[in-house]
Design brief:
- The longest helix is centred in the N-terminal third of the chain and has 9 residues.
- It is built from 7 helices and 16 strands.
- It is elongated.
- With about 260 residues, the protein is an alpha+beta fold.
Length: about 260
Amino acid sequence: MAERLQKVMAQAGVASRRASEKLITEGQVTVNGKRVTELGTKVEPNDKIEVNGTPVEGNEKKVYFLLNKPREVVTTASDDKDRATVLDILKDVPQRIYPVGRLDYDTTGVLLLTNDGDLANQLMHPSYKIDKVYVAKVKGIPTNDELKALRLGVTVHTIENKRHRTFHAAPAKAEIIGVDKAKNTAMVQLTIHEGRYHQVKEMMKAVGHPVLKLTRERYGMLDVDNMAPGEYRELSYDEVQNLKNGKQYRRSSGRL
């Protein structure tokens, strides 16, 4: 049965469906020796698919890893500035895995990596509404009104790729879990469901409290409380099933 090329690539663990689409439009994919750039292209089970000359194997074992992402590591497969990537940390994993979503270069914490394109797309889709819990050390101490604005959903004005961009962030759960009056800083825990570029930093800036340090302490039911920065482990069968079923829990650690 014919399937869309990007779906087959995602299921084979090449990349997420969105990332696979980018590989196709950039001309990095061939089918039976012919370069393909159209996203509507369908392929048959016996077609030979290659990405930059590497064959795509359709029966690769699905694997799922949890990483405690350290600072100064990028959440990409490669980097044009030659910085370390999360895949450099998991270089001993034989499967072609990729991160689910992204964390900024200077952001630490929970990051899921897999070659399961269907699950990755499910988790990243806004309708799935998986909890992403962040703890941000911010400049200044947010007022009740500022926290209320975060809870109602703030409008963010930012610049991305030299273009002005405005978006209305969905309502977040927001609370102060620590204050340092001497240094005029606060620890704010935010629970969001979206995954926009620099979202937490932009939301806090929108209410007048720039982020000084940021960590993602939970993703759905997953945390890295007992893992050192740069440490990773494979998820258990139950953890994978809980992710697929949207199981979540709530707790606060307040640590950065």
